[in-house]
Design brief:
This protein is an alpha/beta fold. 32% of the residues lie in helices and 24% in strands. Helix 6 links the parallel strand 7 and strand 8. It is globular and about 45 Å long. The chain starts with 12 loop residues before the first strand and ends in a 14-residue tail after the last strand. The N terminus and C terminus are likely disordered.
Length: 241
């Protein structure tokens, strides 16, 4: 087989012409997007454009009113609530604007928690947590409660927690929104760098061009519609710059 005849890998995650409304307000209008495995994608757009709703549909938190969402060859939107919840525990990781850590627990406890909830043995769970905290330059703070950490330190703990189960996709919703610009850039560099080492796909919602600059590709959401300047086919995997 010649190089030109090699098959093109299909997307890991797709939204196909999805609609989503809240009452009379339509948040998404025939929104289509495709993400390849290992890609770092930034979803940009003004406040209220529908970008967070798109992220939630891709993660199976919301189901679209119309259209399809595909993950790893399966219709995500047709799965039961229990099955989608299972995927969010095992195949997906999440980083939110304010971290959503348990402040009474230590950094190591917070990172190991998803593994422990999944019935992993304690020693391997904490070994994996320690490895990630070290790679995120937090080894010396592993025993400190997260309520005592700075915003940037806490967000790095949240990144470690998102990666601890070795998910296929990390969804990050304004992960630097509560941080100053310098700290935010550092957090994004660590998130993207560690995700690349782990082979994890990252989808980040942001309004910050400096955050989007860390991604392989950017798409814009305006009035519920997705504009992807790097794809010619709305169902095709996006071309990486």
């Amino acid at each position: 087989m010649t190089v030109d005849a090699l098959p093109v890998p299909g997307p890991l995650l797709e939204a196909r012409s999805i609609d989503r409304s809240y009452g009379r307000t339509q948040a998404l209008r025939a929104a289509s997007l495709a993400v390849t495995a290992g890609e770092v994608l930034a979803i940009m757009g003004p406040s209220g454009s529908g970008k967070s709703t798109l992220l939630h549909c891709l993660a199976g938190i919301f189901t679209p009113d119309a259209g399809e969402v595909w993950f790893d060859g399966r219709r995500l939107d047709l799965l039961s609530d229990a099955r989608r919840s299972e995927l969010r525990r095992t195949a997906f990781g999440f980083v939110f604007q304010f971290g959503q850590l348990v402040p009474e627990l230590t950094a190591a406890d917070n990172v190991a928690l998803p593994l422990l909830l999944g019935k992993a043995r304690r020693k391997p769970a904490y070994r994996r947590a320690a490895e990630l905290l070290r790679r995120l330059e937090l080894a010396e703070l592993s025993g400190r409660r997260t309520g005592e950490l700075s915003g940037g330190q806490a967000q790095r703990v949240a990144i470690a927690r998102a990666l601890v189960t070795r998910p296929k996709v990390i969804f990050a919703d304004e992960p630097t929104g509560a941080l100053d610009s310098l700290t935010g850039e550092k957090v994004m560099e660590l998130l993207v760098g560690l995700a690349r080492q782990e082979g994890t796909t990252v989808i980040v919602v942001t309004h910050d061009a400096r955050v989007a600059a860390c991604a392989d590709r950017e798409v814009m959401v305006r009035d519920g519609k997705v504009t992807d300047p790097y794809a010619t086919d709305p169902y095709a995997a996006g071309a990486v710059r």
